[in-house]
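Cast an eye over this sequence plus C-alpha cells and walk me through the fold:

***
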Amino acid sequence: MRSRFLTASVGYGPLVPLYAQLARWYSGGAIPACQHWAVDEVAPGARVLFAGPGPGTDVLRAAQAGLRVTAVDRCPVMLAATKRRLQNAGVAERVELVHADLRQHPPAAEFDVVIAQFFLNVFPPDYLPQVLSALAGYLKPAGRLIIGDFAPLVDGGRCWQQRYHDLPMHILARFGANARHPVHDLPVYLNKAGFQLLERRRFRLFSVGPDWIEGLVATPGTN
C-alpha cells in the first residue's frame, strides 16, 4: 500500500471505532446498502477514487471486487482505520491511501469513477460548487461520479426528514467534522456544476421506512 501523507487533521477521532456501526444502526442498514450499491455499479478493473472514505468499509469491498482503488481523506485517523481494515482482510497492497484535502491535491483526470459517500454533506452549501469542480477534475472525460447522501426534502415529511438529517450533523459538528447546513439538494447542485444525472436510487430506512438515503450517478458534461 502506497501512502502520500500531508499535514491535516479532522476531529473524528473519538468516533472512529463506532463510526460504521453507528451509521448502520441509525439508517437501519440504508447507508451500507447505498455503499454496496455504489461499488456494485463499477465495472471490474476500473480505476476508482474514494473521496473521504471514512473507516473504509466500501473501500474494502471495492478492493475485494478487484477494482483499482485510491482513497483520499484529510483525516489521518480515518485513514488509519481504513488501513487496519484492509490489512485484516489481506488486501492492503491493492489500495493506495492518500492523506490530503481533495480540493487542494493536484487533480489528475485519470479515474474511471469517483465515489463520494456522505462526503458532500460535510460541506456548507457555498462550498459545494468548489468541491464538485474538484471531483470532476479527477474523472476521465467519460467518467462517472457516484454519490451517496441524504435525499432532498420532499413534501409530506419535510419536518421529520430534516430532523433525521440534522441529528448526526449537529453531533459530528461538535467534533469539528462537518459544517451545519440544511439538507443539500444534490441533483440541483450537480446540474449547476455541469454534471448530467444518469441515475437516482433511493434506500429505505430499515428496508421498510422512508427512503431518505439516495444514491446518484452523474457524469461531467453539458445538460
